[in-house]
Amino acid sequence: VASKHAVVGMTKTAAKDLAPHGIRVCAVSPGLLEGRMWATQVKGQAQCRKQLELGTGLHKELGAEAVSEEEFSVQEKRMLGGVPLGWLGRPDEVASVVVFLCSNEASYLTGTVIPEYKILCDCARGSSLCFRLFATRHQRVPDE
Questions:
Q1: How buried is 1 (Cβ within 10 angstroms: 0-12 exposed, 13-18 middle, 19+ buried)?
Q2: CA dihedral (14, 19, 22, 28) positive or negative
């Protein structure tokens, strides 16, 4: 959590420092998306839940066969239940947000962090949410 807050602070500080030079700084924290990481997150949370139910503690690694298809499916539904729209984002949707933030339509936005939808976890191993930090030089186009 501290590293995520550090990225937010770095984004806001860099935005303030670079604004006089016409450079805008924003970050995107997309949360969980369709793809390989989703399956890894679901499996990890299902393993965590199983460890808690068995009382084995979170320190012990379970093997790949330790999570059944049914347990995987139940955990996937639980995790999707924490997403307001009920489905995962796609990489192209995140790319669209980045394109917008780099465009003239977002010319007044700087120091902005587009947040993820957080999924509450049942154990210490939370979801690996990553930030994409980017900067773009922006010259305001004079009004015609």
A1: exposed
A2: positive
The tokens for 118 are 């957080």
For helices 36-54 and 69-81, angle between their N-to-C axes, nearest 10 degrees: 110
Whether the model clears a pTM of 0.85, i.e. scores above it, the answer is no
Residues 105-115: pLDDT tens digits? 888 999 988 87
**Residue indicated by tokens 């509450």:** 120
The CA–CA distances, whole Å, from 96 to 36, 90, 93 equal: 21, 10, 5
d(CA 14, CA 12) in angstroms, rounded, equals 6
Quickly count: other Cβ atoms within 10 Å of residue 107's Cβ.
Answer: 13
